[in-house]
Amino acid sequence: MRKRILALILALVSFCTFALPALADYKFTDRDGNEMIAPNRAFAVEVVEFTPGSPWTRYDEQKKPENVLGLPDRTGDQSTSKGDYCLGAGGSIVLRFDISIYDGEGLDIYIFEVGGQVEDTQVEVSSDLVTWYKVGVAKGKTAGVDLAGKVPEGARFRYVRLTDLKKSPSGDWPGADIDAVSGLNVKAISSKWAEEEVQKAEEYGLVPDSLRGTDLTKPITRAEFAAVAVKVYEKLKKAATMVGNKNPFSDCSDPDVIRAYNLGIVNGVGDGTTFAPNQLLTREQAATMLTRAFKKIAFTGWTLANDSAFPLIYDMPAPFSDDAAISGWARDSVYFMAANGIIEGNAGKFMPRATTPAEEAMGYAQATREQALLIAVRMVENLG
Q1: Which of 73, 129, 120, 59 is nearest to 97 (CA)?
Q2: Once rounded to an integer, what is the mean pLDDT over residues 222-234?
Q3: What pLDDT, in 10s, does the model give residues 80-107?
Q4: Nearest 5°: phi and psi at 101?
Q5: What single-letter DSSP state applies at residue 223?
Q6: Whole-number Cα distances in Å, 43 to 59, 176, 309
Q7: Rounded to whole angstroms, what are the CA distances from 54 to 34, 51, 84, 91?
Q8: Strands 92-102 and 46-51, bridge-based pairing
Q9: CB neighbours of 165 closer than 8 A, spacing ≥ 6?
């Protein structure tokens, strides 16, 4: 009966899918003069390994494989290389991405090859650095590759290998000169079990810009979860929020954190003058932020300052075996979330926060980005 009352509190709040802000884009012109767009976060972030070809360039600046990382430094037919990496005749390089590349509509990978000569590279992709799939040849300049028909259906890839095909095996810069490599059809990296929930989060409009194109298997920070909590509030409230003009934090000016503060979802750490935006989130902090978002919608006149005047009504579940580890300020929120099936325990424990150096070292009680999106989805589905 009490759960029905909770549902009735938000009975007039309906689901509304907001348009998702686009990932910041890099615009460029391809070899045929077509205007193209690549997500900024879809460019290579790490050189896994490289093998220079023979012969190789004599210029030290073009022997730096890290020149391939990030956005292109330049495109075009300039004869003097700058900010790129020379593969050398037959040389190769393996790159890692912080996103998953998949076979989508049109081209899926773009190779930014520069210099006065057009030099081809063999393009391969892998998800594990063990099994590689040849997906085509990038024929110099800015050239795209389509994965269609060359990889297993539904496969995702984090690694790209380029190998020079010795089209120009001599001169000052023998082999292809690679400025950058980008995925065009990309998704955030997530665990297999989380793919459905991440897709729901996308559909509900719960994925903030700060998590787009990121590795969702990594732990989530306080600032990132504050942004998720704001998205939950906006979804349930069926309205966008203003940033607000109050910012008490000396260490954070993130717009989503300021939105969360002005809504009463967060109030900082310690004396409230700092937020610790990059500190990893704990499970009890997640429960508390989401409960405050719920109260802001459910109770007219609620503020963080008068929170005690608005008690929650729910069927108290059995205490967790680590109940004593739950902070006093978080206890009601933890059990409210548990009672409504939003944040669950594990083997009778809630794991609210790390209480020993050993627990801190092992990442105890931390939530990953994909877990955060999962509980955001449950929040919308169970209390919407």
Answers
A1: 129
A2: 97
A3: 445 899 999 999 999 999 999 999 999 9
A4: -95, 135
A5: H
A6: 25, 18, 50
A7: 34, 10, 18, 7
A8: antiparallel
A9: 90, 119, 120, 121, 122, 137
**What is the distance between the alpha carbons of residues 255 and 21, in angstroms, rounded to a whole number?**
14
Task: Please tell me which residue, 91 or 3, carries the higher pLDDT value.
Answer: 91
pLDDT in tens, 316-361: 999 999 999 999 999 999 999 999 999 998 899 999 999 888 988 8
Question: Which of the 8 DSSP states describes residue 130?
Answer: S
- How high is the pLDDT of residue 143? 83
Whole-Å CA distances, 170 to 60, 63, 206, 256: 17, 16, 53, 53
For 139, phi then psi, to 5°, come to: -90, 55
Measured CA to CA, the distance from residue 3 to residue 22 in angstroms comes to 37
List alpha helices for the chain, DSSP H.
Answer: 2-9, 195-204, 222-237, 255-263, 283-298, 331-339, 357-361, 369-383
Q: To 5 degrees, how large is the angle CA 267–CA 286–CA 384?
A: 105
At 167-185, the pLDDT tens digits run: 877 778 898 999 999 999 9
- Mean of the per-residue pLDDT values for the chain? 88
Query: H/E element holding 142?
Result: strand 142-145
Residue with tokens 């460019």: 43
Residues in the chain: 384
pLDDT at 3: 37
Distance between first and last Cα of the chain: 17
